[in-house]
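User:
I would dearly like some help making sense of a protein record. Take your time, and here it is.
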Amino acid sequence: MFTSAAASSSWVTGFTVCLSLIVSIGAQNIYVLRQAVQGEHVRACVAWCVVSDALLVGLGVAGMAQLLGSSPTLAHWLQWGGALFLLCYGLFAWYRAFFAPGDGLQAEGGRVARGMLGVISGLAVITLLNPHVYLDTVVLIGSIGARQDGWLKAVFVLGAASASLTWFVVLAFAGRRLQRVFADPRAWQVLDAITGAMMFVLAWWVWRAA
């Protein structure tokens, strides 16, 4: 029989494991931060991230983690794909920073507004087409959650979703606080340059781990 202590333990485990993995500079976090700075459809972005994280972790807990874990070749290709994705993302960021600094900027210095569908579509591509996301959510977090008993698996997923919500709300708030800084178009160049460098470091780290 499950107790409230067991449920609390499962929730805390899901929360801490998920938070420890998502609190890092990645393509999805950078995208949400940029949207928060621009003030475009931030709530929709946060909602997408939380729901997608919960679904991916849930898939891992339901058994997908064991399936991927039993295929070292598939895991290897996921790591290679993740490294390539991060490399391309970094190159695109550096292209904006060094070769097209005015790309996406209006004459008065503001970013060109996009509709919610366009913003969420871009976030969906970054989330679902990044193989490294599946290693973090489905394989790593999912395999830990799969060890929980019975309905405690659902409590674990809820804890992971709570961590995702907490992180992306904090990220959105930080972006709002930085809006005045990014009123200067040169600040976007600096952000893109730093983003590219970080993506290259992450790509190298994932490639070395493959």
